[in-house]
Amino acid sequence: MPPVLTVKAECRIQAPPVEVFTLLTDLSTWPDWNSFVPSVDIVEPSEGATVHPTLSTETSESAKQRKPIQIGQRLRLHSITGTQKNATIERVTILETPPTAISDLPQSFSNTSRIYRVGWDLESYPRLLLRVSRINEVEEVEGENGVESLYRTKADFNGPLAWGVKLSVSKDLQKGMELMAEGLKKAAERAVQVA
């Protein structure tokens, strides 16, 4: 059965995917570029967490300030939808990075593309009433000046309460997704210019 509501956004970013994904998965950067979800708290850290490799190998002072997304974490996302401020609890369910080389792949590995993924599911409501799954993808694509990124984000809403969401705030959610994509684009392109 298709979702009751799907909101999504997409943009091309003139920056390498690892730069875009690093910004996307470092929660400490969100206040600087994400006007849709300007604040995130880690409610429950993940045991035996999987951290994005770029973030896990850094030793600089700035790396100590980072809040990397990890599989299994519970997060409180503070979003701004229209004129309303909301806080929801989400669990990180997807964190995938492509291999650095095809030879690094186990034979059963399915992500042979150059796509980075991070996603989370809503835990604020009973799943019987409302289920929301959010996925963010950063795909490596060729641009006029070399490697660029294609950022895609999508949230699927299901369950009886999804109808209320669809009727009351779907346009605001759509605008929020577009603002998040635009903010990520500007921040990643600015970071590449500075480097």
From TrEMBL:
Where on the tree of life does the source sit, at the highest rank? Eukaryota
Identify the Pfam families for this entry.
Polyketide_cyc2
* SUPFAM superfamilies per the UniProt record, alphabetical: Bet v1-like
InterPro entries for the chain = Polyketide_cyclase/dehydratase (IPR019587), START-like_dom_sf (IPR023393)
According to UniProt, the name of this protein is Uncharacterized protein
